[in-house]
Amino acid sequence: MTPPATGTPWLRRFHDRPHARTTLVLFPHAGGTANFYRDWSADLPAEYALAAVQYPGRETRLREPLPERLEDLADGAAAALEGHLTGPYALFGHSMGSLVAYETALRLAAGPLGPPVRLFASARRPPGREGTASGVHLLDDDGLVAVIEKLGGTPPGLLDDPDLRSLVLPAVRADYRNIAAYRPGDPVPLDVPVTALAGADDPSVAPAEVDGWGAFTTRGHVLEVLPGDHFFPVRRRAEVLRIVARDLAGGA
């Protein structure tokens, strides 16, 4: 199915929701694409539209240069949203996407669109607390594939194919490089409520670390721990979407 047009390469919609009241904007993980969220929009309640961010250098934007800074992703996403979004919106980021969503929220809060109604930060420490992932981009291809497989991002052996590696690994490496170089400075709390989500068995970040997002909001936060590894939103999608719908409805 061809996604409905959005007028910008930065955003993809997989279902038309012309009467939706709120748009949920989704930010993929390192090496990820908008297609990661393809199945989400069909499962959301009708009052919510979905727009997935498509980063440069992958999928429908494969011929474009890969970003050189994580902040470049936030700059591009914020500009696209300001030009193509109306009405209330929320931001959901998974892993690296949580950092990009946070930076995007800072930009939008200072502009004409105003702040989101809520930020969802999944499977990521808050800005400035990146831990042991800072050298991943320096690994050789086999080492990088091992990291991806450990996190549960792809089935073991899938990236043994050289052609697939040549498509996937450049974006993964560039994103990890940008995460390592990201220097947010002093925390800037958002005047936005935050929902932090963590996988109970995530090998890269513990739930207590994900809970650190509480320092980045003046409006309160909630931590949700779900069964699974780093990619728990894939296997626990229904539970994640129930949490999203609950919190957007003001039930948290």
Automatic annotation (TrEMBL):
Leader peptide range in chain numbering? none
One Pfam family named in its UniProt record? Thioesterase
Q: Which residues form a coiled coil?
A: none
Q: Thioesterase TesA-like domain: from which residue to which, for each copy?
A: 28-248
| Domain of life where this protein originates | Bacteria
Which GO molecular function annotation, any one, does this entry have? Answer: hydrolase activity
Q: Which family does it belong to?
A: Belongs to the thioesterase family.
Q: What PANTHER family does the record point to?
A: S-ACYL FATTY ACID SYNTHASE THIOESTERASE, MEDIUM CHAIN (PTHR11487:SF0), THIOESTERASE (PTHR11487)
Q: GO biological process: what's one of them?
A: lipid biosynthetic process
Family annotation (InterPro entries): AB_hydrolase_fold (IPR029058), TEII (IPR012223), TesA-like (IPR020802), Thioesterase (IPR001031)
SUPFAM superfamilies per UniProt: alpha/beta-Hydrolases
Recorded protein name is: Surfactin synthase thioesterase subunit
Q: Which UniProt keywords apply?
A: Hydrolase
